[in-house]
Specification:
Length: 188
């Protein structure tokens, strides 16, 4: 199963097999059942997550109102990047939208590997650059596309989006569940 993570790393950097073996040994497999949390508000952020299968919804809750920030799917690295380096408590939730398998690595191990292997430092830079570009694209899409176009853009990322609960997806798109149902029917 770790082959998917290995291939993901190799898609970013040309890495020696010996170095890759050492790096992969620092990851731990974790299974998270549907609707269970990888991270809850108030927890100290310590781990990065590589999604092997399944997906997550990342959201905040303020005054009992949920704000869906992001959906993460297979072959993505995620964490609360704004809190992990300083080991602060998160204000967010990362919840499995279906049974999900992740490979986790602690921030401490990641930093040790950065110092030990220049190529791993390059890998880290590249994945976070891509993540930042993804955030910018999502902001642009939200500002410039209509709801149907935003939904279609999400479908291009992963077919898992069709299995996201209607309420969560409509919150992310900034529309009502009934509007999302209508869009889904139009597409079919």
């Amino acid at each position: 199963m770790i082959d998917k993570l290995s291939n993901y790393i190799k898609s970013y950097v040309d890495i020696q097999e010996e170095e890759l073996a050492i790096i992969l040994s620092c990851f731990e497999k974790r299974e998270i059942s549907k609707d269970k949390f990888a991270l809850k508000r108030g927890q100290v952020v310590t781990d990065y997550y590589f999604i092997y299968s399944g997906g997550f919804i990342i959201y905040d809750v303020d005054d009992d109102i949920q704000s869906t920030r992001y959906f993460a799917f297979e072959n993505e690295f995620i964490t609360d990047i704004s809190k992990i380096k300083s080991r602060q408590r998160t204000a967010s939730y990362i919840r499995a939208i279906e049974d999900t398998v992740v490979y986790t690595i602690t921030h401490q191990k990641m930093e040790t590997l950065y110092n030990r292997f220049h190529i791993w430092e390059k890998f880290g830079r590249l994945i976070w650059e891509n993540s930042f570009m993804s955030v910018l694209r999502a902001i642009h899409d939200f500002q410039s596309l209509n709801a149907k176009e935003r939904y279609l853009a999400l479908l291009k990322r992963s077919d898992l989006i069709q299995r996201v609960p209607l309420k969560d997806l409509s919150l992310f798109l900034g529309i009502t569940p009934s509007s999302l149902s209508r869009i889904r029917k139009e597409i079919i």
